[in-house]
Amino acid sequence: MPEQPLYLKQLELGPMQNFVYLVGDPATREAAIVDPGWDIPRVLQTVEADGYRLTHAIITHSHFDHVLGLKELLNAVDVPVSIHKTEAGALPVAPTSVRPVAHGEVIHVGAVPITMIHTPGHTPGSQCLLVNQRLITGDTLFIRACGRCDLPGGDPRALYESLTGTLKKLDDQTVVYPGHNYAEVPTSTIAEEKRANPFLNIPTLEQFLSLVGARA
Predict the structure, then answer these.
(1) Class of 7-211 per CATH?
(2) Residue 3: is its pLDDT beyond 90?
(3) CA distances from 141 to 120, 148, 181 (A)
(4) pLDDT for position 49
(5) pLDDT attached to residue 216
């Protein structure tokens, strides 16, 4: 069965090397913005130049560098903002704009399904987005690294389970799109991360806790 056509754009924006993503349906020209942290005018210009219209905003987690542009975005376009229900109250916008979602829930952008995968650890409500064998990982999984778990709300035990019990079990060909441009390349695959990412190759929780500097 041929792969469903997909619009996917990765934009590096802001002083913290954030990736903002646009995901859409080439048939309906509808798109979602993922993690609108920076430079909303440039994002909107990109959407318009590519001939799309925004219908959704999806948040991987509520840290400021992933949501800083949310108010400006909603002043420009009226779209629902989806975030894991654990962090639904943490966004800097009116609650009426927020759509809490749960693990396994699917958001359709046009006919393109985006599946929410709850991956707590970096924050309680961190989630990854799976669409057409592409995984937008926020700050849970980076290329050759993983997200911090020493910030408020971080949980190294939960992060270990998210990495080894959830993400590592995805299809090897799944392409990884991280939340920051912290590596020499902007994307990877689950297979490549299983081969070269030390945080996906730690056999025990105790060893993981030691590596990230947490107490057993």
Answers:
(1) alpha beta
(2) no
(3) 11, 10, 12
(4) 98
(5) 54
The answer to whether the beta carbons of residues 153 and 133 sit under 8 Å apart is no
Which residues are 100's β-sheet partners? 83
**In the structure, what pLDDT confidence band is assigned to residue 213 with cuts at 50, 70 and 90?**
confident
What residues contact residue 6 under an 8 Å CB cut-off, 6+ apart? 23, 24, 25, 26, 112, 131, 132, 134
Helix (H) or strand (E) holding 65: helix 64-67
d(CA 150, CA 43): 31
The model's pLDDT over 184-199, given as tens digits with 9 standing for 90+, comes to 999 999 999 999 999 9
Cα 46 to the center of its chain, rounded Å: 19
Calpha distance 57→97 (Å, rounded): 10
